[in-house]
Amino acid sequence: MASSNPDKLMSKGDKLTKLSFTRWSADWKAATGFYEQAAIGFRMKKDNEKAKEAFEKASKGQEMISSPWDAAKHMESAAALAKELSRWNEVSDHYRKASELYMECGRSQPASDALAKGASSLEDVEPKEAIRLYNDAILILEEDGKEQMAFDLYRAATSLYVKLEKYVDAANFLLRWGVAADKCNAVNSQCKAYLSAILVYLYAHDFAQAQKCYNDCTQIDAFLNSDQNRCASKLFSAYREGDVEEIKHIAQSSPISHLDHVIIKLARKLPTGDLEGLKAEASDEQQEALDEDDLT
């Protein structure tokens, strides 16, 4: 029955935390209990505004009585309610605060998860902040040697970059993913990330960067001996020959059809850009190479 009047519970909590001539120290422990009951009561009444405030105060209370785990949980509840209320700045701030509190407990996974929840909530309304949150969530796991746990975050951030048409950023992120995969011996994920980066550059019709990316990746034994490398090699040959049908055929092939959906979609739209120009360029390069051979 206590939670049936959450406003009164909030008042009780506030009285216990407000200092006055008669109250010289705050009783955060008792107050936090009232705030928690009030938060549940407001949420049952679907009063999101007051429920959010109650969870914020309950979080502060748990922090004051040195219980960062419970403080983090309440802050996540406040963040979820901020999302319902479209308070986008508060969504970010609250999930970041929850993450910090989890880190105080030495728990990197929930700390990263909190940031990822914030990022997911903000993708459509504040994509730049969403990217920052994904990046910070990944860093927390990487610093704790948990690269494998960050793969879904790399995937989500890459998808968002592609959605925003920031193809260079998407490719760079995929290369970062490849490095992370290498650190935890996830060879298949590593090779898929490198092929994906090459495909993103080709989609953005930056053939020179795609070629450079390919050359760099083939310095890595794991990629050099992979199906993904053989697929990329065939793709570059088809590009140099200006063979549109062959490019389309390779884009349907097995190594590409096993990539993430967002990359498959780009690959199926290849080729983009000026193939004739590339063909002419490749022909000039071949001629230069022949001329050099003649000189030697």
TrEMBL record:
Region (Disordered): 277-296
Protein family membership: Belongs to the SNAP family.
Record bears the keyword Protein transport: yes
Name under which the protein is recorded: Gamma-soluble NSF attachment protein
Membrane topology: Peripheral membrane protein
PANTHER family membership: GAMMA-SOLUBLE NSF ATTACHMENT PROTEIN, SOLUBLE NSF ATTACHMENT PROTEIN SNAP
Keyword Protein transport assigned: yes
This protein's GO CC annotations: SNARE complex; vacuolar membrane
Source taxonomy: Eukaryota, Viridiplantae, Streptophyta, Embryophyta, Tracheophyta
Biological-process GO terms, alphabetical: intracellular protein transport; vesicle-mediated transport
Tree of life domain: Eukaryota
Record's keyword terms, sorted: ER-Golgi transport, Membrane, Protein transport, Transport
Species: Apostasia shenzhenica
Matching SUPFAM superfamilies: TPR-like (SSF48452)
Main location class: membrane
Molecular function in Gene Ontology: soluble NSF attachment protein activity; syntaxin binding
Subcellular location, record wording: Membrane
Biased composition (Acidic residues): 283-296
